[in-house]
Design a protein that fits this description.
Elements lengths: L1 H15 L13 H6 L16 H20 L8 H26 L3 H13 L10 H11 L2
Helix pairs in contact: 3-6
Length: about 140
């Protein structure tokens, strides 16, 4: 019986959690351990994280700069994807750091795994610049 409980705890920790270092916190009720974690995910821990509104404003700034450069015939000759990546690099790096820190310290790994799954689902390629505004909002949506 103890082997079956240990196996259930290991499956819960590694398949549904984030690979707990110790199975002691799960105890003999792996299903109960998972169910008690359901609910809103922890807020991301990190600095320099923009809100969804700030992300949309930053995107609008990028578009404005692009239009002004074209109108002034001083368009940057670098590919748009490169310009876009440079414009949003700090925001993306802050978001990735926050996701990793939050995953490392959360007391609710099952909920965090769900948040990471949906964040990945809504991730928009940096090459698809026209959809970044929705990417900024996806971070907010996955933690609700």
């Amino acid at each position: 019986m103890a082997i079956r409980q240990d196996r259930s705890a290991a499956v819960a920790a590694h398949r549904f959690g984030l690979g707990e270092a110790s199975l002691a916190g799960i105890g003999g009720d792996a299903r109960g351990w998972l169910l008690q974690q359901l609910g809103p995910a922890d807020a991301q821990r990190g600095e320099q994280l923009p809100s969804g509104v700030a992300g949309v404003k930053r995107y609008a700034e990028f578009l404005r700069d692009q239009r002004q450069a074209v109108a002034a015939s001083s368009a940057d000759m670098r590919p748009v994807e490169q310009q876009f990546g440079e414009h949003f690099r700090r925001i993306v790096q802050a978001d990735v750091r926050a996701r990793l820190v939050t995953a490392a310290v959360t007391a609710r790994p099952f909920t965090e795994r769900l948040a990471l799954f949906w964040a990945n689902h809504f991730t928009v390629s940096m090459a698809k610049a026209s959809a970044l505004a929705s990417a900024s909002l996806s971070s907010c949506a996955t933690r609700v």
